[in-house]
Amino acid sequence: MDFLDRYRDIVPDFKAFRAIQSRPLFSSARINTLKIEREVLLERLTEEAVPYRRFDWYPLGLKIDVESPGKLVENLLGHIHIQEELSMVPPLVLGPMPGELILDLCASPGSKTTQISAMMENRGLVIANEPSLARVAALRSNCERLGAMNVAITRYDGRNFPRGSFDRVLVDAPCSAEGRERRGPGVIERSNCKRSLDLSVLQVGLLKNAIRLTKPGGVVVYSTCTYAPEENEMVVSAALNEITKSNESDEAEEPTKAHLESVVIPGLQECPGISLWNGRDLGREMSLSARYYPHMNDTGGFFVAKIIKS
Amino acid sequence: MSQRSSRVRNVFLPLELTAVAELWGSRFGIPVEAFSGYRFFKKANSIWAISDVELPRLSYEAIGMRIMNCKDRPWKPTTAALQVFGKYAARNLVHLDADCARVFLEGKSQEVDEAAAMECEPGYVVVFYRGEVLGCGLYSHGLLVSQIPKERRLASREE
Ligand SMILES: C[S@@+](CC[C@H](N)C(=O)[O-])C[C@H]1O[C@@H](n2cnc3c(N)ncnc32)[C@H](O)[C@@H]1O
Question: Rounded to an integer, what is the distance from CA A229 to the centroid of its chain?
Fold first, then answer.
C-alpha cells in the first residue's frame, strides 16, 4: 500500500483514505427502467427478503447485501444490473437524451452503455465500441439481458474510430483501476508509475479522437476508476493542449476549441481535480473535474471530467 | 466454402419489417404494430432488431438484439426477444405458478397441465409468470422444456 503515499499531498484526510482501502465494499446494483418500474422492483426485493439500501444520491442505485448478487432472479431477468456505485456517475454527467446519437468509446462490459440506453428510453442510438473480441461477448450479453434495443456494437481501436458527429461521447478509459481496491484487494500493490504513464499515452489518444468525433456544442466525458494524475488531469490537459496546438499548425481548417465544465453530483462529495502535479502545471481549469475518494462517500474511487466542444 | 460466400454470410442485410412480423404473427399472434419502431437485419441464420434510427456508415459487430434463429425449422425466438415482444402474444403461451416458474428458470423440463398450456401447438412458446414474460420454452404433449440460456439460469435450490 506504500504506493498510495504518492497521493499524500492531494488526498484530504489521507489517514482515513488509507484506512478504508482494506474495508470491503457492498455490492451495488442499478434498477433497469427499460424492463421494470422502480417501485415494483423494490417491492419484489422486499418480498424475497433481499437486504438492500437505497443510494442517497441516485434513485436507481441500490446497495445489496448478498453474497452473489449476480445470481438474484432480478439480475437474471434484467430487472437490475450489478454495477459499482460510482460507475453510475459518468453517464449522469454525460446526460444523454432520447433521440440523440451517442458514442461509448470503451464500452465493455456495458454497465454504462446500458445505463445510457435506459436514460434514452431506447430512443436514438448508442454506438458501443469495444476492440476486444472476448469482451464484446459480455457487452452483447448485458445489452440483451437488459433489453437495450438502441445499441449497435463496433470493434475499432478507439484511437482510430473512423468518423461521426456525435451529440455526446463517453471515454471510460482502460486504467490502472486503483479505485477498485476495496472490491478486489491487490490492485494498488500492483500499481506503478511506468504502467500509468504507458496507459496515459493510450488515454490521450482516445480522448483526442473522442473530441474530434463530437459535434460542435457536444459533450465529451472522460472517466477512470483510478487516482493517478498521470491517467486523469494530465490526460485531459494534454489532450486539450494538443488540440489547440494542431489548430495552430493547420490554419485552413476551422479551429477546434474545447473547455471543461464543472462536475457536480448533488449528494456525492467530490474533490476538485488537481492543477499541479510533481511540479507540473496542468492548468487551473483542471479543478473543474471531479475526484471521488472512497472515504468521503464510502464507495470506490473515480475521476470524471466533462468537456464541451465549442 | 469460397471466400466470397463467407464474407457475404457475415454481413448485416436489411430485412423488411413485414417479413419478421408475419412469422411472429403466425406463431404467437403478435400484431404487426408491436414491431413498428424497430429495424431488422439478417446475418447468417440470425435476425436482429434495433430501434428505428439511421445507422452511421461503420463496420458493425452487432446491431441491436438478436431476436431469432432461423437455422432450424421451426425458427426459434431468443429469450431476450420474448422478454421484449412476448407480452403482445395472443397464442402459444404458458402461464406458470411460482413453483413451476422456478423450475423453468432453473432450465429444467416439467409436465404442465392443460390449464397452464391453453391449447398450445407443439413448438416454441412464450412462458409467463404473474403476467410477465420469463422466456422461451419448447412445448410438446404436456412437456415444457426450458430454453433459458445457461448463463441466465437460476441456481437449483437442492444443489
Ligand atoms: C474501464 S473498461 C470500460 C467499462 C465500461 N465502460 C463499463 O462501464 O462497463 C475499459 C475498456 O476499454 C477497452 N479498451 C482497451 N483498449 C482500448 C482501445 N484502444 N480503444 C477502445 N477501447 C479499449 C478495454 O478492453 C475495456 O473493456
Answer: 16
DSSP string for A262-275? ----TTS--EEPPS
Residue B10's domain comprises: 3-86
Across the A/B interface, how many CB contacts are shorter than 8 Å? 78
Distance of residue B45 Cα from the nearest chain A Cα, in angstroms: 18
Q: Does the pLDDT at position B158 exceed 70?
A: no
pTM of the predicted model as reported, rounded to 2 decimal places: 0.96
Distance CA B113, CA A157 (A): 54
Kindly indicate whether the domain formed by A26-83 is annotated with CATH number 3.30.70.20: no
Catalytic residue (one of A106, A143, A225, A271): A225
Residue A164: which of B51, B56, B78 has the nearest Cβ? B56
By C-alpha distance, the chain A residue nearest B150 is A76
- The answer to whether B78 contacts chain A (CB < 8 Å) is yes
Of the candidates A141, A152, A163, the beta carbon closest to that of B50 is on A152
The reply to whether A271 belongs to the active site is no
pLDDT tens by residue, A22-44: 999 999 999 999 999 999 999 99
* A245-284: pLDDT as tens digits: 888 776 656 788 999 999 999 999 999 999 999 999 999 9
Which pLDDT belongs to residue B115? 79
Q: Are strands A101-104 and A80-82 parallel, antiparallel or unpaired?
A: unpaired
Residue B89 touches chain A, beta carbons under 8 Å: no
| CATH number, domain A2-23+94-309 | 3.40.50.150
Confirm or reject contact between B131 and chain A (CB < 8 A): no
Residue type, A268: L
Q: A258: closest CA among A223, A226, A302, A213? A: A213
Q: Does residue B54 lie in a domain region?
A: yes
B42 domain-assigned: yes
